[in-house]
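Summary of Year 1 activities. Much of the first year was spent building the evaluation harness for sequence design. The harness presents a backbone, in tokenized form, and records the residue chosen at every position. We chose the following record to illustrate the format because it has been used consistently in internal testing since the harness was completed.
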């Protein structure tokens, strides 16, 4: 008698572009966030190409899970490797897991764990000391997989702030302030010089900030400061700098991916009630985001129109009275998004729960704040050796509070 409940054998192999690109794209559409009966949302990446999430990293990988008997692809995961620094002066080679997807019919069958384990083996072979990932706090299935089955440890918590460009920040007005605020754009060399100095204040930061700032998706770096402090003149670390200032850069995610909303409801004005998921898993639904009314026809193409967002990264401030400067930075970026022809709908940033600027993000009725969790796992014996014991305590005991968020992961 044939056992119809017998589980199909699944193997993990590397992604092969010619044979897999369309199939993986279809798999990801089937794994869209939300439910088809109500409101759902999914991400369109660059030309729908699976490598678009990791194209900025020299060391990168895509793995797929394939059913042996039928050849069906039922899972996918991306991996990349980067170097990060810590405020103690140590450097770490870290592998990052991005875009883990498993077909709904093959969930809870160990496919996700197999993909993660295979990605970790690749990271280890390529010199990574740790494996890193992020997930939204309320994603119980994901947190259980990584913490209980894959033995990842909690690293830190972050806040994701989301504001729709269509919601005016009328209450944020520097015109009524006794101190006028200026927003000034820095050239790339000035930005590199400034970040080289300020990133060392972070518990964890990227060592290739110069490459990020030179990417075409980085729209630029700006500083906000009070006009009474004089003009910003930064050519080196000893140049004339105002007493109080905030620096921020803007990443044009509209060029890298789009969000797309679907609904079967005839009245299409909805309040999207879920969130953004990191590690890129950074694309989800927001309570603050309102979609305009469109035709009542379920097949209306305007309902499916993709929209993008701007990501504020590299936020750092020094001096007193920074709240007004932060508000000005948000309003500037919102207006920048409004002016874009890519249908930019929201402005987003992510800050560690220990970052002083997290408390200064303007709180408006249209602003959403979502909790994000970062996890880490030691991969090599070198990472567990006595010579790295102090660094290990920081990374593996949840002592990280203020981190730099990589815009390339969005």
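For this record, the design step produced the sequence shown next.
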């Amino acid at each position: 008698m044939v056992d119809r409940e017998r589980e199909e054998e699944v193997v993990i192999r590397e992604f092969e572009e010619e044979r897999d690109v369309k199939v993986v794209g279809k798999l990801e559409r089937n794994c869209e966030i939300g439910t088809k009966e109500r409101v759902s949302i999914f991400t369109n990446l660059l030309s729908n190409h699976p490598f678009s999430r990791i194209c900025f990293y020299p060391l990168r990988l895509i793995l797929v899970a394939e059913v042996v008997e039928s050849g069906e692809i039922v899972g996918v995961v991306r991996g990349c490797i980067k170097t990060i620094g810590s405020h103690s002066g140590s450097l770490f080679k870290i592998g990052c897991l991005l875009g883990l997807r498993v077909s709904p019919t093959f969930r809870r069958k160990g496919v996700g764990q197999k993909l993660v384990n295979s990605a970790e083996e690749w990271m280890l072979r390529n010199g990574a000391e740790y494996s890193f990932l992020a997930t939204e706090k309320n994603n119980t299935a994901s947190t259980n997989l990584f913490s209980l089955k894959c033995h990842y440890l909690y690293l830190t918590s972050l806040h994701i702030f989301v504001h729709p460009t269509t919601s005016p920040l009328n209450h944020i007005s520097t015109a009524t302030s006794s101190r006028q605020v200026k927003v000034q754009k820095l050239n790339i060399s000035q930005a590199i010089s400034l970040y080289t100095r300020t990133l060392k204040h972070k518990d964890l930061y990227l060592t290739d900030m110069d490459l990020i700032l030179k990417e075409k998706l980085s729209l630029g770096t700006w500083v906000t400061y009070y006009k009474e402090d004089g003009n910003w003149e930064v050519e080196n670390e000893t140049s004339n700098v105002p007493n109080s200032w905030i620096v921020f850069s803007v990443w044009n995610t509209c060029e890298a991916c789009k969000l797309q909303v679907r609904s079967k409801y005839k009245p299409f004005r909805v309040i999207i009630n879920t969130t953004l998921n990191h590690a890129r898993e950074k694309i989800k639904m927001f309570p603050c985001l309102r979609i305009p009314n469109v035709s009542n026809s379920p097949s209306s193409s305007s309902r499916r129109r993709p929209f993008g967002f701007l990501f504020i990264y590299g936020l750092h401030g020094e001096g007193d009275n920074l709240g007004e400067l932060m508000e000005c930075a948000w309003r500037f970026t919102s207006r920048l998004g409004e002016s874009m022809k890519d249908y930019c709908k929201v402005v987003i940033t992510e800050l560690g729960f220990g970052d002083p600027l997290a408390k200064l993000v303007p709180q408006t009725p249209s602003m959403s704040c979502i909790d994000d969790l970062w996890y880490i796992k030691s991969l090599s014996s070198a990472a567990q050796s006595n010579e790295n014991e102090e660094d290990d305590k920081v990374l593996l005991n949840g002592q990280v509070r203020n981190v730099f968020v990589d815009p390339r992961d969005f």
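The mean pLDDT is 78. Quantitative recovery figures across the full test set are reported in Table 2.
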